[in-house]
């Protein structure tokens, strides 16, 4: 499933960045989605909620900005609690 790969990669990046910064919780995640992402923002949000359950990112606000750039999904920033 295409979405599983996208979400798996996103969760891996989020968890890695959170660990590197000694986070206890991810509060929000800022993403940009370009033309090559292959997934709509609302669909990504649905899959994120499921994937984040039971992780450090559970309940995090997912803020998505779309762009006309020929990019995929880029992790812009995280707000965390330490």
Labels describing this entry:
single chain; 82 residues; alpha+beta; hypothetical protein PF0899 fold; 3-stranded mixed sheet; 3 strands
Kindly describe this structure.
It is a single chain. The protein has 82 residues and is an alpha+beta fold. It has a single domain, classed as hypothetical protein PF0899 fold (2-Layer Sandwich). The protein contains two helices and three strands; from the N terminus they run αβαββ. The chain has a three-stranded mixed β-sheet with strand order 2-1-3, with helices on one face. α1 crosses α2. The protein starts with a helix and ends with a strand.
Straight-line N-to-C gap? 34 Å
Outline, from the CA principal axes?
globular
List how many beta strands DSSP finds.
3
- Proportion in β-strands: 25-35%
Helix vs. strand class: alpha+beta
A few lines on this structure:
This protein has 2 helices and 3 strands. The chain is an alpha+beta fold and 82 residues long.
Layout of helices and strands:
Blueprint: H1 2-20, E1 25-33, H2 41-52, E2 61-66, E3 73-81
Parallel strand pairs: 1-2
Antiparallel strand pairs: 1-3
């Amino acid at each position: 499933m295409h979405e599983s790969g996208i979400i798996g990669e996103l969760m891996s990046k989020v968890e890695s960045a959170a660990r590197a910064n000694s986070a206890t919780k991810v509060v929000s995640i800022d993403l940009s989605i370009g033309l090559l992402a292959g997934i709509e923002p609302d669909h990504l949000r649905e899959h994120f909620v499921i994937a984040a359950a039971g992780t450090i990112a559970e309940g995090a606000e997912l803020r998505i900005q779309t762009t006309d750039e020929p990019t995929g999904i880029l992790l812009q920033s995280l707000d965390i609690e330490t």
